[in-house]
Amino acid sequence: AVQLTPRRWLNLQEYQSKKIMADHGVTVQRFFVADSANDALEAAQRLKAKEVVLKAQILAGGRGKGIFNSGLKGGVHLTKDPKTVEQLAKQMIGYNLSTKQTPKDGVTVKKVMVAEALDISRETYFAILMDRACNGPVMVGSPQGGVDIEEVAVTSPELIFKEEIDILEGIKDRQALQMAKNLGFQGPLQQQAAAQIKKLYNLFLKIDATQVEVNPFGETPEGQVVCFDAKINFDDNAEFRQKEIFAMDDKSENEPIENEAAKYDLKYIGLDGNIACFVNGAGLAMATCDIISLNGGRPANFLDLGGGVKEAQVYQAFKLLTADPKVEAILVNIFGGIVNCAIIANGITKACQELELKVPLVVRLEGTNVQEAQRILSESGLPITAANDLEDAARKAVASVAKK
């Protein structure tokens, strides 16, 4: 039987992505990483650059407009004075940076990247991604870089260029050169851009990426093509081949409960409500959260079992949910396709008995082996509220909390 288990997507810090690119011959800014103000000063001095950029390293966007609880405004700063780097780093490292993408209290900055600041005379957009429509990799580029590419696609679709790559033959010289032309590179820069595009494709294949997005893919006044920033997504199924890269995974910014859930191949996202959602599949999880809200309740979490479920996972999931003091009721919503509902039912009964569940439990099961699952639950003698469908389950879960 096919066993499918959910995995947490790999997240890399900016400096880690840049190092991977540099290791594969892609041109990036020179940089160092520092975890103290003194190291940041030494890094700035070693760069011997006319101007340096200091960037806080957290797994969130909007750093430039963020605010530290030290009082410093902005997680990205430019300066020509190495001593200023030291002073800024003192107000960054060890302090929380709040941006539009972080929790309210922000995220603690443990490292900063000290990089050579380069002027950009022109910005373009370039990406390589796996496209199911053509069953392989596709290059996407636009001479309009440094901005929201989705907006460009809507307002100026003629400025979006796509080129399919035969994964067996690889990227051809003419394809790379044509993309460089489409991006607006001219003269010697055209050949240089084409060479960078080929290196990015080789990187894409070698590290089992599903996407390598460079924005901006720019040129400097000195005539150099540079990848100024990059977002890399990886194929989680290739973890066994990419052990060094996956070992870089930074879990320190996660909530402890998320890391605990990941140990058992569970996907957990904490929310601010009081009704725990225990489901299989991300789409079903979002629908369950929505229907709880529509019925006047508040979801406490998003917990996804995935496909290859075992009883032990169900037990651990209940253990995580019941340890959350916010949880006043649990809604189990399982649609069994790959999932065997009887396995879920056995896991539920074992968890309820051993953990002495003290909050209301509403269960809606549908799909594979559901009759056997319903028999297991009904004969368990446990105070489990059965639901006919998702609407019924949400209504009963919200009502169970209201009775308290």
- Rg on CA atoms, Å: 25 Å
Overall number of domains:
3
Helix percentage: 25-40%
Shape: globular
* Structure class: alpha+beta
- Report the count of strand segments: 19
Pathway: Carbohydrate metabolism; tricarboxylic acid cycle; succinate from succinyl-CoA (ligase route): step 1/1
Protein name: Succinate-CoA ligase subunit beta
GO molecular function, one term: succinate-CoA ligase (GDP-forming) activity
Enzyme class: ligase
Q: How is this structure best described in words?
A:
- It holds the Pfam family ATP-grasp_2.
- Its EC number is 6.2.1.-.
- Its cofactor is Mg(2+).
- Heterodimer of an alpha and a beta subunit. The beta subunit determines specificity for GTP.
- GO terms for molecular function: ATP binding; GTP binding; metal ion binding; succinate-CoA ligase (GDP-forming) activity.
- By secondary structure, the chain is an alpha+beta fold.
- It folds into three domains: 87 residues, ATP-grasp fold, A domain (Dna Ligase, domain 1), CATH 3.30.1490.20; 126 residues, ATP-grasp fold, B domain (D-amino Acid Aminotransferase, Chain A, domain 1, 2-Layer Sandwich); 145 residues, Rossmann fold (3-Layer(aba) Sandwich), CATH 3.40.50.261.
- It is 34% helix and 24% strand.
- It contains 13 helices and 19 strands.
- Strands 8, 9, 10, 11, 12 and 13 form a six-stranded antiparallel sheet that branches. A six-stranded mixed sheet has the order 14-16-15-17-18-19, sandwiched between helices.
- Helix 9 links the parallel strand 15 and strand 16.
- Helix 5 packs across helix 6, helix 10 crosses helix 11 and helix 11 runs parallel beside helix 12.
- It is globular.
- The N terminus is likely disordered.
